[in-house]
Amino acid sequence: MIINFTEKCNVIFKVLNCSNADIARSCGIDPSLISRFRTGSRQPSVKSLQFNLLCKGIVNYAQLNGLLNKLQQECEMKGLKNPEEEINDYLAENKENHQSSIKNKSPLTDRLFSEKLNVIMNKLNISNIRLARVLNIDSSLISRFRNGLRTPLKNKPMLESMCLYFYKIARQNELDQELYDLIGSNATKFENKDESIKNLVKWFSDEDDQYNAGIMDRFLEKLDNLSVFKIPDLPPLSSIIKPDTLQAQSNEYLGIDGIRQAVIRFLGTVAISQNPVIIKLYSEQSLHWLSDNPAFIQKWTALMYAVLLN
């Protein structure tokens, strides 16, 4: 019997035979965020923007691919409401009961970063522009934090600076107790500045790491906007990824040509993988091996684009 949000999400994706990226493009949120919904590492509130966007994206994808009737049958929807409302009800059923059963936590501990940020900024009467000036960033980024389309990294200096500012405003306006109550009973009193900021960061980040978006989140967010750029004609993967390259026994690659072969093998393996994988790219080497060869740049672009789409 399917009772939780994560299981229901995975049933829907199986019925639609779609990827995280497919639904992400349909609803406008990060593929990595959808991945965390499906693995259970993040649980959106049924009233959150992300939850509503997800439901809308599922319906849009189903309608565009002629799968709405199949989805309604598989999920036992009665067709008494519009499709988006039915998906919303289907995913929300039993979810709130599950969340309310979690004890010994602040009421907001399991909510998304965006919702926590909204609560604190509203309580302290802080505008997007005001916070943006303090952090020396564009106010549109604060807006994306608040609507859930972006999330700062856990323990990132920006988050610590944000929490320091919240602490100062709370102290100046004698709102210590309100902020203390909001964070939860495990927080220390606000007389200790360093401990208070540490608790604020921990509350925002969540010690279970479910709010850590990671560098790849930002990378994938750029993918959502690729359609607004003019993408040149890219060579087909079949012309780049050769069986002998992927099955090569050598573990050593020498010279510029060797680097290029290694890159094709690495990115090609990821691009054709049937399962989502995490890749970490780092190099202190000159990029002449890439920039000096226009033909190879085309291959690299095609491979990287395929990796991100996958």
Plain-language structure description:
There is one protein chain. The chain has 310 residues and is mainly alpha-helical. The chain has three domains: 5-100; 113-205, 434 Repressor (Amino-terminal Domain), CATH 1.10.260; 230-309, no CATH class. It has helices at 5-16, 20-27, 31-39, 49-64, 68-74, 83-92, 95-100, 113-123, 128-135, 139-147, 157-172, 176-183, 193-205, 214-224, 243-246, 255-271, 288-291, 294-309. α2 (20-27) packs across α3 (31-39) and α16 (255-271) runs parallel beside α18 (294-309). The protein starts with a helix and ends with a helix. Mean pLDDT is 76; it is low at 95-111 and 207-230.
Q: How many alpha or pi helices?
A: 18
Approximately how much beta-strand content do the residues carry? under 5%
Helix residue percentage = 55-70%
Our Rg estimate from Cα atoms comes to 23 Å
H/E element string?
HHHHHHHHHHHHHHHHHH
Q: What's the number of domains?
A: 3
How does the major sheet shape up? Answer: none
User: By helix and strand content, what is the structural category?
Assistant: mainly alpha
